[in-house]
Design brief:
Elements lengths: L4 H11 L8 E3 L1 H7 L2 E6 L9 H10 L3 H6 L1 E4 L3 H13 L3 E5 L5 H9 L3 E4 L4 H15 L2 E2 L6 H17 L5 E5 L4 H13 L4 E7 L4 H8 L21 H10 L2 E5 L1 H15 L5 H13 L7 E6 L6 H11 L1
Parallel strand pairs: 2-10, 3-4, 3-6, 4-5, 7-8, 7-10, 8-9
Antiparallel strand pairs: 1-2
Length: 319
């Protein structure tokens, strides 16, 4: 897979007026707590509630008329499905989303409300992906991959481009890492603009595919555990792994409890609703922020699509 800064600039131009240019906000409490100067990129305020719309719309806007008439299908743990469904409604394209069983209700309902057909299959993302790819072959629908696609990576890379346009002197960018489309896109943008910027991926211990692969120097099998960060749950692709080795510096892990604590911290301190997947970067800075002490750091909140039941649980614990 080849993605360059020029691809991200083209994506930025096409996405202008379609997606929200989300704010990059200085967090005095997080800066004080971590010892770094921290700016937060709030993709939880993006249309559909996550960064995923950037890559999904950019990919689907490039489909030919014949491909649009065939419709699209995708696999998603929620946020990518929401993005594809929203883009499909805007572009007049029929959408089918295969979601793992256990996907949060709020995400499933949102996908259906945007007009897509939802099919629940598989216990994890990888299993849903296999079903969706088989259905794509059988139905002739175009498969829109959640992360292993150059157009999707370029679209997600606009997050990093915006961050560095707003704060050109960032020393590091901390990014939640799932399939890898976002961190690869941000890495391409960051390293092209300033090769000295450190790009750090963060995962939950419940789904450590990137961390394990980085340590081994190759893709390896890992064991998944139940997690509140369902958007990060699942494996990675060979092409993204190859690209990440060029533009990402390291991957770190946080625990499930640290993730939940970061969600509570965001709610109590800034009144931000952040889903588990979106909170792992905050968790890293809250619990391992000493590693960034004295530096200028940008951290991405990737989404805010949190089920009401989980929000109630966070509030109950806080009380």
């Amino acid at each position: 897979m080849k993605v360059q800064l020029s691809d991200i600039l083209l994506a930025q131009r096409m996405l202008s007026g379609v997606v929200v240019r989300t704010p990059l906000m200085y967090s005095e409490p997080l800066s004080r707590y971590s010892g770094a100067s921290v700016w937060v990129k709030g993709e939880n305020w993006q249309t559909t509630g996550s960064f995923k719309l950037r890559g999904a719309y950019y990919k689907m806007a490039q489909l030919s008329l014949e491909e649009r008439e065939r419709g699209v299908i995708t696999a998603s743990a929620g946020n990518h499905g929401l993005a594809v469904a929203w883009a499909g409604r805007l572009l007049g394209v029929s959408v089918v989303v295969v979601a793992p069983r256990g996907t949060p209700k709020t995400k499933l309902e949102g996908i259906a409300q945007y007009g897509a057909e939802v099919i629940a299959q598989g216990g994890y993302y990888d299993e849903a992906e296999t079903v969706a790819q088989e259905m794509a072959l059988a139905t002739k629908r175009v498969y829109v991959h959640a992360f292993e696609d150059a157009a999707v990576v370029a679209g997600q890379g606009t997050v990093g481009l915006e961050m560095l346009l707003d704060q050109p002197d960032l020393d590091a960018i901390v990014v939640p890492a799932g399939g890898g489309g976002l961190i690869c896109g941000i890495g391409v943008a960051a390293k092209a603009i300033n090769p000295a910027v450190e790009v750090v991926g963060v995962q939950s211990e419940a789904s450590p595919a990137w961390h394990a692969a980085w340590s081994a120097g190759k893709m390896v099998d890992v064991e998944y555990q139940p997690t509140w960060g369902e958007g990060l749950l699942g494996g990675i692709g060979e092409e993204n792994f190859t690209l990440a080795r060029q533009v990402v510096d390291r991957f770190e892990l946080v625990t499930e409890e640290q993730m939940k604590a970061a969600m509570r911290w965001a709610l109590e301190t800034h009144h931000w609703v952040v889903e588990g997947s979106g909170a792992v970067g905050l968790a890293y800075l809250l619990y391992h922020g000493g590693e960034m002490r004295g530096r200028r750091v940008g951290v991405v909140i990737t989404g805010g699509n949190l089920d009401v039941s989980r929000l109630r649980e966070l509030i109950a614990v806080a009380e």
